[in-house]
């Protein structure tokens, strides 16, 4: 997926019937949005999507071999993705579809407000045969990283590779509480049960717990104790509040020492945090050290992203 940042006035959002800080997905009923947004001048193009964002940040911070599998359209945006990943030394395999579009997320910036419009395009077309071929060429004993978004967009594929992932280290990012109300929940639950590590925010763990048990939890400690099992690590963030995590079936917390202020852009901070978690587990650090790495990387991303956005829109 490619992120396309566009500076706009509030009047444009109103004309397109978009909300500030809202999210819309392109479908058959609103294709006019794609036509209008593609004609607007972009202030920045960059690789995007939660999984790829995590890999990109990880490639900049840690010397770890990375391999990304996805599907794209045969268009100008494909070349932008390939060039960026080549520069970052991320190995990739893209299944290319001539009759479809590379996925895009239009990020409309109005001051500190933003509205997201996503065109999934070819990103949902990844075939079983192509993935099987890619997995056969991977080295043994690799870490797999899956997001809830990826699972929800590829239900058949997710079920198909489940047995393969059971035999390897798996880190799952819950991604969004909106994924637990429909049929995709059952697939995400299967991944949750076989994951060595699960990362998410409080809203995601809270919603997931309610779907699993059908009741309201008392607090985050109850959520993590009842959802996890002894050898599984669950990590729950909550904005600027303490981070909770499990170790050998017990729940611990880590304080957030620095307050970054209210006027910061936190979009993508969770992806940077997940990158730190991946880096720590890959290098076999203690869970306490891993949490600190995740916090540091997330903070660094927030500060850099806030500065970049301010330079673009002010």
From TrEMBL:
Listed cofactors: Mg(2+)
Pfam families: PfkB
SUPFAM superfamilies, A to Z: Ribokinase-like
Active site as annotated: 271
Tagged with keyword Magnesium: yes
Enzyme nomenclature, EC number: 2.7.1.20
Enzyme class, broadest EC rank: transferase
Keywords (A to Z) from UniProt: ATP-binding, Kinase, Magnesium, Nucleotide-binding, Purine salvage, Transferase
MF GO annotations: adenosine kinase activity; ATP binding
Pathway named in the protein's UniProt entry: Purine metabolism; AMP biosynthesis via salvage pathway; AMP from adenosine: step 1/1
Function, as annotated: ATP dependent phosphorylation of adenosine and other related nucleoside analogs to monophosphate derivatives.
Protein name: Adenosine kinase
Protein's organism: Hamiltosporidium magnivora
